[in-house]
Amino acid sequence: MKRVLEIPFHFFVVVLGLYFLSGIGSLLAYDTELLINVAGYLERLDQTLTEIMNPSFIQIYWGEGNKQYPISEVFASTYSYSFLLLFSSFLLAILMAVILSYTLMLLPRNAYRFSSRIVNVLDALPDVFIVVLFQLFIIWLFKETGLLVFDIYALGEERIYILPILCLSVLPVVFLLKQFLFQLKEEETKPYVEFSYSKGFRKSYTVWHHLFRNVWVHFFFHLKPIFLLMLSNLLIIELLFNINGFMQTLLRTATNSPAAFFLGMLLIFIPFFIVFTLGSMILSKWLNGGEQHE
Which of 54, 68, 81, 107 is nearest to 252 (CA)? Predict the structure, then answer.
């Protein structure tokens, strides 16, 4: 019963927080000195609430020429594109992290330690540096060979996919790889691993069929930080590749259309709140069922 009441309460608190955040740009005013304009902030919140009640009338400045377009038209175009990039890079990151962590677990001890140091170095690299490095490599390759492997910049309404997806997946791969390796090493000390070896199973079989099966449970608990990491990186990707995406839309509406900013944040929050809540409930029941079974 407590869990049933907590979920709508958390949902309401976050939505209310996003609503208050939408008008934060009106809270500060400058008139010879920086002032806190509470009256202007409350007026903006009231205006936002009125506009939310009639979303079909909300207009957003967008595209070349900075023309006004209905919010539904802009969000429908940019939301699907940006989150296609996000989910594609997420799936690629999971696939690469699984393959790399499985491979590293099979390496000799010295090779494993050397590989771990490389992973730590990659983890320390800034997002912008990685993206610019990719772009410079593509430019250098084009100058040397005349072959343009990927588009490195979007012009106008043009949409590019491969390079943004690759760049967006790099840091999640490193994050997941470190988490997988940590959990796999923890699992490797468990008695069932020695039992598997004593039965004559090879290390490759034990790692894949036993260690990874238990690691996937911990993977869900890292989904939220991964999602937040990729969401923040998505804005950087859109800016550096000149992509007219959903995160750029939110960046523009944050200052000139609080109602549109609030609705855009809800489009991000609500689907993932549902996914994480359902996933948490299913995982909790599964773990409790496993404990009762034992």
Answer: 68
